[in-house]
Amino acid sequence: MTLRVLSVASEAVPLVKTGGLADVVGALPAALAPHGVETTTLLPGYPAVLAALRRARAVHAWDSLLGTPARLLAGTLEGRHPLLVLDAPALYAREGAPYTDSAGRDWADNWQRFAALGRAAADLAGGAMARRGKPQRFDLVHAHDWQAALACVYLRYAPLGGIRVPSVITIHNIAFQGWFGAEVFPRLGLPDAAWTIDGVEYHGGVGMLKGGLANADAVTTVSPTYAREIRSPAFGMGLEGLVVARGNAVHGILNGIDTQVWNPVADATLTARYGHRTLEKRRANKRALEAEFELAEEDGPLFVVITRLTWQKGMDVLCEVLDHLAGLGGRLALLGSGDGGIERELLAGAARHPGRIAVRLGYDEALSHRMQAGGDAILIPSRFEPCGLTQLYGLAYGCLPVVARTGGLADTVIDANPAALAAGCATGVQFDGVTYDSLAAAITRTIALYRQPAVWQRIQKNAMKCDFSWAASGKAYADLYAALTA
């Protein structure tokens, strides 16, 4: 029997993306389909999403959805999977990013924009949408991050027609919680009973993620280690007590990657395609990347960084080790944007080491593929990382990850320590603590491994043989859905 799941999120590839959340939401329908799960994805009607819809048809309308008229458009995601788009022009038809205006400021009405998304999801689960005169319901609602979290709250406290289906919430990053002042609560359409410690009240205001964590039937995170880490004050961001209280309802399910998109054997963006049996072809990608970043062409190690330039990602410490990296004969190609101070320090490092360090501010999806294919190692010194996808892409492309031992980085990279090298299972380099000494030592160790060509190639082949597709994770989600709907 097919299980019908409504996946609710603020972004999904290929329609709209600001981070890894979009990759996961976009990949889940195909990952779940082999396990008897039909996933319908519900997204806000941003201009880019509406522009991408083809042959969309209106399937439901609200005269007032949290105070604004809205309608529901039906289409497909990547031409294969059911897609629903919440078309509410007053909330989503505006220039800027999904969460911020063109100046980078949060939209003042983000509480309403994403509460409406949650309300719509709960209504759909209760049968608001009709087909051939009959209500079309879902067996389960899967909410992603704070932007969709109120779906779980509405299902608990104000389900449409009293029909409540199970819900799951996935924490992609607990640092982003969606907190708003108490003045918005009366406008959410929730009963007074929801203004409690078991509802949405959090430090005197409305905590959207907190409400979702408290009221979903199950909570998942995007890696097993992160599921353990957020039980502690160091990683729980104030919600660790609630995570501990949910006990066995919290599950860590590792993200996967789309192996159709991220596959060096078939990647059309590369200068040369290759696999683990044809690693010699990889050199052409390195030469092309050196030329693209105007780096010196040589046989020394080429490190790459593809990330947001923030404190969480450890980019402040990366700035400190640039001279060390260049002094050891390494080179660096970096792609990213973020904190202005970090951007300036990186550019200053590039100016000090022309031909050895190059920085490209911004983001370019095709370039990120070329960097994974041309770089020797990818640096990921994150202070916390719920799962991370760039290290998985690096493994697939033989661009060995050099990672801090945290969250999904710890779960997916096997450190090239003497025991792992002897056993033939190493896939990268791990280090503890994001400090100058720890990152500098990891870079030193990586360069020493690179200078042993047979050892380095063995690690590359180990990495490229790893299976980080959605096969296992898709089954884990399907099993969880089945248990909740039994």
Descriptive overview:
With 486 residues, the protein is α/β, with parallel strands linked by helices. The protein has two domains: 3-256 and 470-485, Glycogen Phosphorylase B (Rossmann fold); 279-465, Rossmann fold (3-Layer(aba) Sandwich), CATH 3.40.50. It has helices at 20-32, 47-52, 89-92, 110-125, 145-157, 208-215, 224-229, 233-236, 240-246, 282-292, 315-327, 340-352, 365-374, 390-397, 407-412, 418-423, 436-450, 453-465, 471-485; strands at residues 3-8, 37-44, 57-65, 68-77, 81-87, 130-131, 134-135, 140-144, 167-171, 179-181, 201-202, 205-207, 218-221, 250-252, 302-309, 331-338, 357-361, 377-380, 400-404, 429-431. Helix 11 (315-327) packs across helix 17 (436-450). The protein is globular and about 65 Å long.
**Can you count the beta strands?**
20
Strand composition percent: 15-25%
Task: Write down the overall geometry.
Answer: globular
Number of helices: 19
Percent helix, as a range, is 25-40%
Number of domains as seen in the coordinates: 2
Widest sheet, order of strands? 3-4-5-2-1-8-9-13-14
CATH architecture of the largest domain: 3-Layer(aba) Sandwich
CATH class of the largest domain: Alpha Beta
CATH homology superfamily of the largest domain: Glycogen Phosphorylase B
Distance between the termini: 12 Å
Query: Which residues form runs of ≥5 with pLDDT under 50?
Result: none
Structural class: alpha/beta
The average pLDDT value, as a whole number, equals 96
CATH topology of the largest domain: Rossmann fold
